[in-house]
Each structure stands twice: as structure tokens, then as C-alpha cells.
Amino acid sequence: TGVDTLWAGVPVVALEARHLAGRASTSFARALGLAEMITPNLRAYEDMVHELGSRRARLARLREKLLVACDVSPLFDAISLAHAQERLAHSMWRVHAAGLE
């Protein structure tokens, strides 16, 4: 998936779309500070893919930016995510146990 690709340090060109996959790709790009990888239409998408394939220095800069973003982004902070889910589960249990459903 796109998230796995990003985590591997491979920049993903995202195409703005109305369907879930398109929205997810653009959301991840924005969350990682890579809005420049979002394209508004298929022509722009094709142009960007071609540009990145021919301009290796730009691709390398994007890859470096992505790797740094992955290190600091909450998207890839599994420990914090697990703690947040634990807090949510405990909170839901307290509401249930108190009969406040």
C-alpha cells in the first residue's frame, strides 16, 4: 500500500481523487509535509512521475525529506498509537462499567 511504500522511504506521487484510496494518499502526503507530491489531475501526475524519473537529484531530496518526516511523524509512531488505543479502550470500559452507555 501507499503507507508501506512511504515507510520504506519511497516517495509516492498522489493523485487527488474522490475515492477513498485517493483521499488516503493525499492525506498521508500532507501529514508528512509532502504536499508537493499531490497532483490535481492525471496529466500533472504523469508529468511529475516523468520528472522524478529524469531528475534523480530531486528524487533523492524528496526521499531524504520523506525519511526525516517518517522519523518524526505520529503516523509511524506505533508506540504512541498503541498507548492512545489503550487509553481509549480503558475510557470506553469505564463508561460501560458505570452504565453510561
UniProtKB/TrEMBL annotation:
Keywords: Repeat, TPR repeat, Transferase
Metabolic or biological pathway: Protein modification; protein glycosylation
O-GlcNAc transferase C-terminal domain ranges (all copies): 1-80
Gene Ontology terms: biological process: protein O-linked glycosylation
High-level lineage: Eukaryota, Haptista, Haptophyta, Prymnesiophyceae, Coccolithales
GO MF terms, alphabetically ordered: protein O-acetylglucosaminyltransferase activity
Protein name as catalogued: O-GlcNAc transferase C-terminal domain-containing protein
Species of provenance: Calcidiscus leptoporus
